[in-house]
Design goal:
By secondary structure, this protein is an alpha/beta fold. It binds ligand MGD (2 copies), iron/sulfur cluster (SF4) and molybdenum atom (MO). One ligand MGD binds next to helix 5, helix 14 and strand 24. This is Arsenite oxidase large subunit.
């Protein structure tokens, strides 16, 4: 693809280039990188003294050298207003990735905003407002004044429940401790906003309520545990594509049998040759393929369960493990409660489980043995990892509980080589004032918006048009409501603020909605908005977050944000300041006073106001100390600052004390009740194909940056839908044909990707893509806690057209590989 990057040769990084710490912001893994920058009119030389690698580059380098970088890691960006070369390359000394990049992270360079090289010209550079029938640039003061006046008017009229908010709760790509604090202080400190939702689900709640209610925080182990485990259990998770370097750098070495060599010293009595792995996933993923190729088929079990039946499998495991006497009785007695109760309530025979899950009795029995059968009289070390196949799966709360039950029963929480963890999506970075006023269950925000509730909607770093459930209906209603306000705005001169605000609030009373989108690009939902506020990304600001083993790092600001874009925390501060001013003008001094305390000059001030004062162990953490901890950082929570270092916590619960009042982890009852979310059973009955959905290695999230990357759009001009050759024959479709996917909830389109391993009637579609939104066919049904069930979706499929021109160059080869 280098030919499309118009790169003939790349400059050599000079020895005196500036070198900064960077954590890749795209996924939970949080790989360490370095940013090298140097003036655009300079470059290094081949002799060892004049390049950053300190090696003689005129010599052929060995195969595994790190004295190189790829075109995708390079760009020219602005730093303090000057053009500089930049190289963002993996750090071999970072324990997370040991120098590995990925098809996403290794493209951070080319996905930076560059006026010199024309990349990411879609980035917003000024606040934009609806003026004379289109979005037009304006100043921060003007845009924030309008937002504050409309917001204040709505809150005065409807109370704070009239303000709806959609906001990130994570670290890394958008989010970070600075920004979750900025937005949190505004909506939960200054205000008590109740109609608020998180970027990836339609309410303000936990994705993993059950494990927390049981006293087991969801990120309780460390990446090294995957190297130490005898058995890894991966549930609803495709780690090669979605947590790439965690899988490649920590799971594969175990499966290959290479990690124990160096780890043997830590577990002297328990060394094993190589680990085994169990995947629970209705579909055969490339992770299963990679594990088989690297560990041999004998060490890999793929349990291709019927979609949505995980809970039954876990209950059968619990029953079988208890029947065999493989439970960790000492641990259960000392550190848990309600084991007997849950065991009795969840009792599931192997035969019943086989019937519901579609697995064989032998598969269930054998997998239980891999999990818990003692080896030479010693307890087996088993790590349980789960992600969106469970989290966005049927009956999320109880299924989550049923898996944690198995981990607790086998004594695998708080021990080396164990853990019961979510794999994670984004990095984490949550620090906010209490959200207790939101209540449980939290408000189903999408539903309220569709019903016409609310007057103003603030959106931070999410695009519901592409990524919510019931998206087709959401989008139609949202457009209608925001159009009412646009039409009203068109009727008055923009400069007449009083008349403008009156026109807007009148339109709101007539069913309209005023929409403010804080994003880095013009998004799909943003097309409906009246104000866009341009945010800075990671690297354009200093940003802290933690990865899936609670490893906290600081990404140092290595370039300027585009134009007038600002960090999200500073945008929140600006909004608060304008609210204060407007409310004072309105004569409400008491309310205005609640918006004080945002006089941060930089994101570091927001960090000190938020994380340092409010996070557990936060008092030990400052930017300067984090910077000194480099790309290995420390693992949260911090417990001390000693000898110039922040002292962290490698694993949680090693003392056998859990996050409940009495310190005992609690087993939970979880009984099977079929497809739980309203409407799912009917949908399954009425439609022919399972539309399983999720991610692909090359694409980051809803492709907000990738949609301007030739590399990605050449590969996936349309979202793929993996389909078995039998289904293709029945539908009369060929490779690359465009099909419509439709049901009672809506319709969307996708491109047929032949997949010989796919089961008949079971497809898998790329989620959240700009040229075809899978969420359009997901119904509105959620569980009692308003957790969406994206994965269990059924629809019909019909052909739209033969492969369009832009698809003809694609390869439709199998994505599987053979061991070399
Ligand atoms: N390349 C890439 N990596 C990413 C992301 C990305 O956009 N691109 N996004 C990040 C984010 S935010 C997240 S949340 C994570 C998600 O990471 P994952 O959860 O690993 O990814 P998904 O593809 O959403 O779903 C995982 C698997 O769930 C399976 N599944 C579907 N239904 C069921 C079921 O009923 N039971 C079981 N057991 N499995 C089922 C699917 O077949 C799929 O293989 O990825 C993160 N990493
Ligand atoms: N069908 C289906 N739907 C799903 C899922 C699924 O598996 N299947 N998974 C769900 C999951 S796990 C997730 S995480 C969501 C993702 O859903 P979203 O959160 O809606 O998707 P993202 O692609 O993460 O959106 C990020 C948005 O923030 C903007 N952005 C990026 N950086 C910044 C920043 O620094 N500041 C600001 N202000 N904006 C920024 C981007 O331009 C983009 O518009 O989708 C959910 N929806
Ligand atoms: S695995 Fe995740 S964090 Fe690591 S380089 Fe890839 S996208 Fe970035
Ligand atoms: Mo996610």
């Amino acid at each position: 693809m280098a030919y499309k990057r118009h790169i003939d040769r790349l400059p050599i990084i000079p020895a005196d280039a500036k070198k900064q710490n960077v954590t890749c912001h795209y996924c939970i893994v949080g790989c360490g990188y370095h940013a090298y920058t140097w003036p655009s009119n300079k470059q290094g030389g081949t002799d060892a003294a004049s390049n950053a690698f300190g090696v003689d580059l005129s010599e052929q380098q060995p195969a595994e050298t790190d004295a190189w970088y790829a075109p995708s890691m390079y760009n020219i960006v602005k730093q303090d207003g000057q053009d500089v070369h930049i190289v963002l390359m993996p750090d071999k000394d970072c324990e997370v990735n040991s120098g590995l990049g990925s098809v996403r992270g290794a493209r951070m360079g080319e996905l930076r905003y560059s006026t010199a090289r024309g990349s990411q010209q879609q980035r917003l550079t000024s606040p934009m407002v609806w003026r004379y029938g289109q979005m037009q640039p304006t100043s921060w003061d003007d845009a924030l004044d309008l937002v504050a006046r409309v917001t204040a008017a709505v809150v005065k009229d409807q109370g704070e429940d009239g303000l709806f908010v959609s906001v990130f709760d994570h670290g890394g790509s958008a989010g970070g401790y600075e920004n979750t604090w900025g937005t949190g202080k505004l909506y939960f400190g200054s205000m008590k906003v109740k109609n608020i939702r998180i970027h990836n689900r339609p309410a303000y709640n936990s994705e993993v309520h059950a494990t927390r209610d049981m006293g087991v925080g969801e990120l309780n182990n460390c990446y090294e545990d995957a190297e130490l485990a005898d058995t890894i259990v991966s549930v609803g998770n495709n780690p090669l594509e979605t947590q790439t370097n965690y899988f490649l750098n920590h799971w594969i070495p175990n499966l290959r049998g290479t990690s124990m060599e160096k780890k043997r010293a830590q577990l002297p009595d328990e060394a094993h040759a190589s680990g085994r792995i169990i995947f629970v996933d209705p579909r055969r993923t490339v992770s299963v393929n990679a594990a088989e190729a690297e560990a041999g088929k004998d060490n890999v079990m793929h349990l291709a369960i019927n979609s949505g039946t995980d809970m039954v499998l876990f209950n059968a495991w619990l029953t079988e493990i208890a029947d065999e006497g493989w439970v960790d009785k000492a641990f259960i007695d000392a550190s848990t409660k309600d084991f007997d109760k849950a065991l009795a309530a969840n009792k599931t025979t192997l035969e019943d489980a086989a019937k519901i899950t579609g697995l064989s009795v032998d598969q269930i029995r054998q997998s239980a043995a891999w999990i818990a059968e003692p080896k030479e009289g010693k307890r087996r070390r088993t790590m349980f990892a789960y992600e969106k196949g469970l989290i966005w799966g049927n009956d999320n709360y109880r299924t989550n509980a049923a898996l944690v039950n198995v981990a607790l029963a086998t004594g695998n929480v708080g021990r080396e080589g164990g853990g019961c963890v979510r794999m994670g999506g984004h990095q984490e970075g949550y620090v906010r004032p209490s959200d207790a006023h939101v209540g449980r269950p939290a408000a189903y925000v999408d539903k309220l918006l569709i019903e016409g509730k609310g007057g103003v909607h603030h959106i931070w770093a999410c695009d519901h048009y592409k990524t919510t459930l019931n998206a087709h209906q959401f989008n139609m209603v949202y457009k209608k409501r925001t159009d009412i306000v646009k039409d009203a705005m068109n009727a008055v001169p923009y400069g007449d603020r009083e008349a403008m605000v009156k026109a807007i609030t009148d339109a709101i009373k007539a069913g309209g909605l005023f929409s403010v989108d804080v994003d880095i690009i013009p998004s799909k939902i943003g097309a409906a908005s009246h104000v866009w506020l341009p945010a800075a990304e990671s690297g354009e600001m200093n940003l802290t977050s933690m990865n899936g083993e609670r490893r906290m790092r600081l990404v140092e600001r290595y370039m300027d944000p585009p134009g007038n874009a600002k960090p999200d925390c500073m945008i929140a501060a600006g909004l608060a300041q304008h609210m204060e001013k407007v409310l004072r003008e309105m004569g409400d001094n008491a309310y205005a006073d609640q918006f004080k305390g945002y006089d941060w000059k930089t994101e570091e001030d927001a960090f000190m106001d938020g994380y340092n004062k409010n996070a557990g162990g936060g008092e030990f953490v400052t930017y300067e100390r984090l910077k000194a901890m480099g790309n290995n950082g420390f693992q949260e929570p911090a417990t001390a600052f000693e000898d110039g270092k922040i002292v962290g916590t490698k694993r949680l619960y090693t003392d056998g004390k859990f996050g409940t009042k009495d310190g005992k982890a609690t087993f939970m009852e979880a009984q099977w009740r079929g497809l739980q979310a309203p409407g799912k059973e009917e949908q399954k009955k009425n439609n022919k194909y399972l539309i399983n959905n999720g991610r692909a290695n090359q694409v980051w999230q809803n492709a907000f940056l990738d949609q301007e990357s030739a590399f990605v759009m050449d590969r996936w001009p349309f979202p793929f839908i993996e389909m078995s050759p039998d289904d293709m024959a029945e539908l009369g479709v060929k490779n690359g044909d465009l099909v419509e996917v439709y049901n009672e909830s809506g319709s969307t389109q996708a491109m047929v990707y032949p997949t010989p391993t796919a089961r008949k009637g079971e497809t898998f579609m790329l989620f959240g893509f700009p040229t075809g939104v899978q969420g359009n066919v997901i119904n509105a049904g959620t569980n009692e806690l308003i957790l969406p069930n994206y994965k269990q979706t059924w629809a019909n499929i019909r052909k739209i057209s033969d492969a369009p021109e832009g698809v003809k160059h694609l390869s439709f080869k199998s994505q599987e590989y053979q061991a070399g």
